[in-house]
Amino acid sequence: MHELSIADAVVRIACAHAAGRRIETIEIKVGHLRQVVPDSLAFAFSLVSEGTPAEGAELVMEEVPAAGVCRACGVESEWSGFPLACAACGGLDVELVRGEELLVDALTMEGVPSG
Ligand SMILES: [Zn+2]
User: What span, in angstroms and rounded, lies between the C-alpha atoms of 47 and 55?
Assistant: First the structure.
């Protein structure tokens, strides 16, 4: 299960930042091309966060649309699905610029103001 390794990475990053404080909210950004199923990720998160400061935290996932620049005409396109074809000329030879992100964007911890 692909989501399990992503959840594991998120929990490790969050716990490192929390330094033992209890985590209330974790906001993550996930690129569309990672094909993460939000329900599966939430389930995987509840498994791997057990017994860590992230246990019981709310996981807020924001999906980053995929985007790329066409190598034929230079136009940038954005996609929320497949195929990844240029919006201007329909070409499939595109250079990806977004969509493979996986990052922890923000954490809210007990007794610490967010921001
Ligand atoms: Zn094009």
Answer: 9
Tell me the CA–centroid distance for residue 83 and ligand 1, in Å: 13
Span 14-37, pLDDT tens digits:
999 999 899 999 999 999 999 899
Do 105 and 61 meet the contact criterion of CB atoms below 8 Å apart?
no
CA dist 64 → 31, 100, 111 (Å): 5, 8, 30
Ligand 1 centre distance from Cα of residue 59 (Å) = 37
Tens of pLDDT, residue by residue over 4-20, are 999 999 999 999 999 98
Distance 36 CA to ligand 1 centre (A): 28
Whole-model pTM: value is: 0.81
Say which residues have a Cβ less than 8 Å from residue 36's Cβ, sequence separation at least 6: 2, 3, 6, 30, 61, 63
Question: Cα(93) to centroid of ligand 1, in Å?
Answer: 8
